[in-house]
Amino acid sequence: GEVHRLRGELNEKNLELQRRERLAALGQMAAGVAHEIRNPLGGIGIYASILQRELADRPEHMEIAGQIRAGVQNVENIIRDILAFAGNGTRRCERVLLGSVMEGVLAHVQRHVQEFDTDLQFSPELAATWTKGDAGRIERALLNLTLNAIEAAGSGGRVWIRRAETEV
User: Fold this and answer.
1) Is residue 120 a contact partner of residue 159, using CB atoms and an 8 Å limit?
2) Phi, psi of 62 (to 5 degrees)
3) Of 33, 81, 92, 112, which has the most beta carbons under 10 Å away?
């Protein structure tokens, strides 16, 4: 009976070791992919900056170049998350003003708001709320939630972004 129990325990440990080895390989692959994406992304960011300076006298076109730069920064943040997952990046934990984060979110969702003719409301008390975390990750989470809400609300829908009142 003891031999049978020990064999079962050994099998469980071997399965756990295999799972960890697969996760380590996945982390290494993710780091490699992130590195390969980061190289051309840097060039895109530089060209978008140059384009933005060249279009300074045409604000409507300059805004598009700014959106390209913001998109590059968003992908850079995602790459940082991939590297953190792979164990090669850093996570930042800092005080974050949600109003600043929401400015980025609102800039990214404007096209969707117009496309879906959504009534998007953002509560003022949320703008003054401080939290702790990684601002880039918080922004991506709120961006995904907001985009999902806009799509779920459908054409002509209403979306409210507000702080939930909770008691501790």
Assistant:
1) yes
2) -65, -35
3) 81
How far apart are the C-alpha atoms of 64 and 135, rounded to whole Å? 23
Tokens of 50: 């140059």
How big is the chain by its Cα radius of gyration, in Å? Answer: 22
Q: What are phi and psi of 92, to 5 degrees?
A: -105, 140
Output the CA angle 127-131-137, nearest 5 degrees: 95
**Can you give the pLDDT of all 168 residues of the chain as single tens digits?**
899 999 999 999 999 999 888 888 888 888 888 878 887 888 888 888 889 889 989 988 888 888 888 888 888 878 877 777 666 555 678 999 999 999 888 888 888 898 889 999 988 888 889 999 988 788 888 888 998 899 899 899 999 998 877 655
| Cα 69–Cα 34–Cα 134 angle in degrees, nearest 5 | 65
Beta strands in 58-101 (DSSP E): 94-97
Ramachandran class of 154: left when φ > 0, alpha when ψ lies in -120 to 50, beta otherwise: left
Amino acid at 29: M
> pTM value?
0.53
As a whole number of angstroms, the distance between CA 105 and CA 143 comes to: 5
Residue 58 tokens, joined: 């045409």
